[in-house]
Design a protein that fits this description.
The protein is an alpha/beta fold and about 375 residues long. About 40% of the residues lie in helices and about 20% in strands. It has two domains: about 250 residues, Alpha-Beta Barrel (TIM Barrel); about 90 residues, no CATH class. Helix 11 runs antiparallel to helix 14.
Length: about 375
């Protein structure tokens, strides 16, 4: 599944590709988030034109709407949404975690109330696998227990142990699926306790699953804490398996993850920022709603191949946002995803030359970072 072609000279960064049912995916790779079977404000054809071949869908949301009876008629989320590339689906653990007042976690699984109509539902490690097989996910995630910063070590240990038991149950169900070609990833938990992170990784690695994710990061902790636990946890995972950090989408966090040897990451940030008129540039984020851009005839970013930069000025884009025209959101979304794709593409080139560290340093010197040495 994983082929590593290049390794950086001074960091753990690596490049290569994943071989998945719907084609190869170059790594490192950012996955645009398509929670409801669509990446907001951009056509799937545009995502393919940029170069993306792996996007993310969400089990929790798709299970509730449109429902698995609808997806079954189409035989896959790919056909339902007319996406020809690969899809990774999150199990819904994070969404259930976010519904703290509406859910109960038990040994058998999670009981929760729909955010749509308040109806009661149950999700087990086995049913999460079943749902993701119905979606025909190319990569599916185990159901896990996500925890917030600040809980006690005892609470974190209980959640971590339950996640490990759920991973084993998920593996057993996944192995029963003879006609399913997708792969199952386990998720390392343990909150912000090194001993628990280490124990979680050891338990999951012993299960010998196709890939591993680092969960429970970028959930509100300080940037320095994220960096510490990223670099502590990543080496605990097998070198011959894909490594995935969930929920990171700013350039500084993505480059830090690549430096640690991470292959995959996802986040709503690039598309959500675009809908608010905030765009990536080499010199940091640019807020198109700012009055100083009213008469600015320059493009968002020189030589950027996206339609926002090729065809329009900053002044026109600002006009679209102040007038609340939908085109502004469409163009900004395309731009931000193009920017992120190009950034990762340039990172892969730097890895192939053994020069990732100076590339990262030079980029962040202009763009800025929350993470510090």
């Amino acid at each position: 599944m994983l082929t590593v072609i290049h390794r950086d000279n001074t960091t753990q960064a690596r490049s290569g590709f994943l071989k998945l049912p719907h084609g190869k995916v170059e790594i490192p790779a950012f996955m645009p988030v398509g929670t409801n079977g669509t990446v907001k404000a951009i056509l799937h054809s545009a995502l393919s034109e940029i170069g993306f071949n792996l996007i993310l869908g969400n089990t929790y949301h798709l299970y509730l709407r449109p429902g698995m009876d609808v997806i079954e008629r189409y035989q896959s989320l790919h056909r339902f949404s007319s996406w020809k590339g690969n899809i990774l689906t999150d199990s819904g653990g994070y969404q259930i975690f976010s519904l703290a007042q509406f859910r109960k976690i038990r040994e058998e699984g999670a009981e929760f109330r729909s955010h749509i109509d308040g109806s009661l539902h149950q999700l087990s490690p086995e049913s999460a696998v079943d749902i993701q097989c119905t979606l025909n996910s190319d990569i599916q995630m185990q159901l896990d227990v996500c925890t917030a910063p600040g809980i006690s070590e005892k609470e974190a240990a209980q959640a971590m142990e339950l996640s490990s038991r759920w991973a084993l149950r998920a593996k057993r169900r996944w192995m029963e699926k003879e006609d399913y070609r997708g792969v199952l990833f386990a998720i390392v938990q343990g909150n912000f306790f090194r001993n628990l992170r280490e124990e979680s990784a050891h338990q999951l690695v012993d299960m010998s699953l196709p890939g591993y994710a680092i969960g429970g990061l970028s959930v509100g902790e300080e940037p320095e804490v994220f960096k510490e636990f990223l670099h502590f946890t990543a080496p605990l995972l097998p070198d011959n398996k894909p490594k995935y950090v969930m929920g990171i989408g700013t350039p500084d966090y993505m480059l830090e993850a690549i430096e640690a040897g991470i292959d995959l990451f996802d986040c709503v940030h690039p598309t959500r920022a675009a809908r608010n008129g905030s765009c990536f540039t080499p010199d940091g984020m640019l807020n198109l709603r700012n009055a100083r851009f009213q008469n600015d005839t320059s493009p968002l970013v020189e030589n950027c191949p996206c339609p926002a930069c090729r065809l329009y000025s900053r002044g026109y884009l600002r006009h679209l946002f102040t007038a609340r025209e939908i085109l502004g959101t469409l163009l900004a979304t395309h731009h931000n995803l193009q920017f992120v794709y190009s950034l990762i593409q340039n990172a892969r080139t730097a890895i192939s030359k053994g020069s990732f560290s100076p590339f990262k340093k030079d980029f962040l010197a202009r763009f800025g970072t929350q993470l510090h040495e």
